[in-house]
Amino acid sequence: QVQLVESGGGLVQPGGSLRLSCAASRTIFSSITMGWYRQAPGKERDLVATIRSSGSTIYADAVKGRFTIYRDNSNNTVFLQMNSLKPEDTAVYYCLCVLYGDNYWGKGTLVTVSS
Question: Is the pLDDT score of 110 beyond 80?
């Protein structure tokens, strides 16, 4: 069991940057996969990025070159650095932790990109 708490969401202008944080209630060293998903209004929850314990990453095509996922195992935290934000990035962003074959989700943090 693990609790995930996201932070860092908010309102930003197009072209701006934002960093999301996901703090886990326990060590994530044993978590093979950590990631971020997002759900835009009227759409399904989609992959943004994932990071394996090996450090390998996967990014959705829509965010490649703009977003970076990384993890700080010593602080049990996963980050999503978002640059060059676009209005279409507006969504609720959810943190994912895959632990012992089970998926754990945070409650989400809202990111709004608007001028």
Answer: yes
Please give, one letter per residue, the 3-state secondary structure of the chain: CCCEEEECCEEECCCCCEEEEEEECCCCCCCCEEEEEEECCCCCEEEEEEEECCCCEEECHHHCCCEEEEEEHHHCEEEEEECCCCHHHCEEEEEEEEECCEEEECCCEEEEECC
Q: What pLDDT, on a 0 to 100 scale, did the predictor assign at position 37?
A: 98
pLDDT tens per residue across span 33-83: 999 999 999 999 999 999 998 899 999 999 999 999 999 878 889 999 999
Cα-atom radius of gyration of the chain, to the nearest Å?
13
Q: How far apart are CA 88 and CA 23, in angstroms?
A: 26
Whether the Cβ atoms of residue 94 and residue 108 lie closer than 8 Å to each other: yes
For 23, phi then psi, to 5°, come to: -100, 125
